[in-house]
């Protein structure tokens, strides 16, 4: 039971206890107390028993009830989340397994976010520390760039607040200013220029559309915005081949991402979009570099495109088209998930 809270400004006053306690029946009244007991019984029947091992193996997801708007249950959730969260684990690399307790710093970029502060057009690279100790201003080796870089102005974020980080350890996440040198999947290491973490999978898009700027004079801003959102991982960008002009096709996992694309290009880059939805539902990467896609026997609706790394990708309308392509081209091997290696 809870009350107060000033719309989330302060932690609400709450009373803890068992639903069977008489005090709750008195506070709620017979009707609502009976409804609460029925709801809890339903949850007990529909859910699984708490099992910490299954949670840490990703087989079970704990559920918490609370309200951020009234500041009820937020503190217990955060405390329990820290208790349930597993310790940083071993991560595979080209140099073997990286132990989180190693003295040498390693980390990888897992997220890029631009325009977090629209007034300054900043771009932040989020880094997960895999081992060692990070200290503010330290120099590390950027494997993909092949050079040393200095990690200045490291920050951590809580909602709209930013704080400067002096040091961080394995399992922590920090954000650093990105002048355009970082990409998702980049490896940073201390003292080992050969160490490289495995690429991050690119999950296949299920919805596709051709996108063009309404105002052709804003082509430059359009390309900048599309490239930025692609580097963030918000969208996947493909280019049609052999059509005489550059035609961009955007792929997304969910249709709402088209709305995000449209909104951000308008708000952050001043570009109105023209979106032409396509009937294709599946993207498949061609595994072998020896295959010439133009010589493949494909259905008339199958589209051959390049991804951002100039790899050939086939866009299919349905599963039948995929099977047909594989049957007609015995040497053709397709992957539904690709990895980005820069």
TrEMBL record:
Database matches in CDD domains: RF3_II
Residues forming coiled coils: none
Keyword flag Repeat: no
Gene Ontology CC terms, in alphabetical order: cytosol
Database matches in Gene3D superfamilies: P-loop containing nucleotide triphosphate hydrolases, Peptide chain release factor 3, domain III
Compartments where found: Cytoplasm
A Pfam family it matches: EF-G_D2
Keyword Protein biosynthesis carried by entry: yes
This protein's UniProt keywords: Cytoplasm, GTP-binding, Nucleotide-binding, Protein biosynthesis
Protein name in UniProt: Peptide chain release factor 3
GO molecular function: GTP binding; GTPase activity; translation release factor activity, codon nonspecific
Organism name: Acetivibrio straminisolvens JCM 21531
Domain Peptide chain release factor 3 C-terminal: 197-325
Residue ranges of domain Elongation factor G-like in the record: 104-190
Protein family (similarity comment): Belongs to the TRAFAC class translation factor GTPase superfamily. Classic translation factor GTPase family. PrfC subfamily.
Functional description taken from the UniProt entry: Increases the formation of ribosomal termination complexes and stimulates activities of RF-1 and RF-2. It binds guanine nucleotides and has strong preference for UGA stop codons. It may interact directly with the ribosome. The stimulation of RF-1 and RF-2 is significantly reduced by GTP and GDP, but not by GMP.
Matching InterPro entries: EF-G-like_DII, EFG_III/V, P-loop_NTPase, PrfC, RF3_C, RF3_dom_3_sf, Transl_B-barrel_sf
